[in-house]
Amino acid sequence: MNDVFPVSPPRAWAEINLGALKRNLAVAREACAGELMAVVKAGAYGHGLEEIVKALAAEKIAFFGVANVGEARRIRNAGVETRIYLLGATWSQERAEIVARDWTPCISSLAEAEQFHLLAAAHNKRLKVHLAVDTGMGRGGFVADHLAETLAQLEKFENLEIEGIGSHLPSADEDVEFTLKQFSRFRAIVNELGGTEKFKWIHLSNSAGLLGYEQGLCNLSRPGLMLYGISPLPSFQEKLETVMILKSRVTLVRTLPAGHGISYGRQFVTTKPTRVATVGIGYGDGYPRCVSGKGADVWIRGQRYPIIGRVTMDQMMVDVTANEEITEGDEVEIFGPNIPVTEIAEKAETIAWEIFTGITPRVTRLYQME
């Protein structure tokens, strides 16, 4: 680029408060019975992987939980040395790198374990692994039947060190009865396999499990969403702080006459002269188009204003008739402390996890410590 010209500020950006992130981590630490694995998969839930792990690494957590080797590699390339845990089943072409770099996989099958054993033997090392147990998620791990026999077979792989055991809660934010049964079942499994002395790490709880349930025998918890300021259990929301504020700018303000269509398909037609602000963000930035016509608002100059018409790829239109002072360049909160991300998710008939992770790379992330 020619440096003669100034660099324009972004039209859409996310302000990421690393201080709030650390304070949310402190809430998780207070709730847990042991150590923490910070879940940072999917770009730290859209907050920016490298900056988030750098901030959290200083807090002396036990592990970072990631979805794949690409995320693990990015953490190491960022200069962060905290242990890395692969949260799901791996596939054969990933395993050589996992062994070579001493990342920690969870084991869901004997075939997976055997390949890790052979790769570790080739490197003349013992690879630390965790036993994944399926207590109701149905996504991975050994089913509970015949686990003692399975563990006996796994222990024959001399180049594997089974240092942990874990499972996952699919309904901790929705089904208390089932979740309590999962905790009980997991305890029975651990006891069947030799008790707490058998494993260095025992883990089950995600954010909902950590906030809403006694941890019992577990000494490691895996908070994700709560670190980013959202409680999957609404009764705990006041304990957490907003980490991401998604913002944009008013790019144009016009008064349109009655009978004028707004956006594609003319889903919205004005019934009176209407002051319309165009805002420089759309579904191409990750704002869900499906909230169009469902009463979604934005926040400008201390008030809510309704989105009208369909959200487009790069822009949305807002009815600002109630405020003659709103003008081009004004900041717009898309979600944050005044427009909760959970509200947007509800109108989109989805979950906050999807809204966060859907914020696209063209949205600039700006980091601050408060």
Describe the protein.
The chain is of the alpha/beta class and 370 residues long. The chain has two domains: 214 residues, Alpha-Beta Barrel (TIM Barrel); 125 residues, Lyase, Ornithine Decarboxylase, Chain A, domain 1 (Beta Barrel), CATH 2.40.37. Helices cover 27% and strands 25% of the residues. The chain contains eleven helices and 19 strands. The mean pLDDT is 96.
What gross morphology would you assign?
A: elongated
If you average the pLDDT, what whole number results? 96
Oligomerization: single chain
- For this structure, the CATH topology of the largest domain is TIM Barrel
Distance between the termini: 33 Å
Number of domains: 2
Number of helices: 11
Largest sheet: 9 strands, parallel
Q: What's the CATH C level of the largest domain?
A: Alpha Beta
Provide a short characterization of the protein structure.
Helix content is 27%, strand content 25%. The protein has helices spanning 18-31, 41-46, 49-57, 69-77, 95-100, 110-122, 147-154, 176-192, 207-212, 341-347, 352-357; strands spanning 12-17, 35-39, 63-66, 83-86, 104-107, 127-134, 142-143, 160-166, 201-203, 220-221, 244-256, 261-262, 268-269, 274-279, 297-300, 303-308, 316-319, 331-335, 364-368.
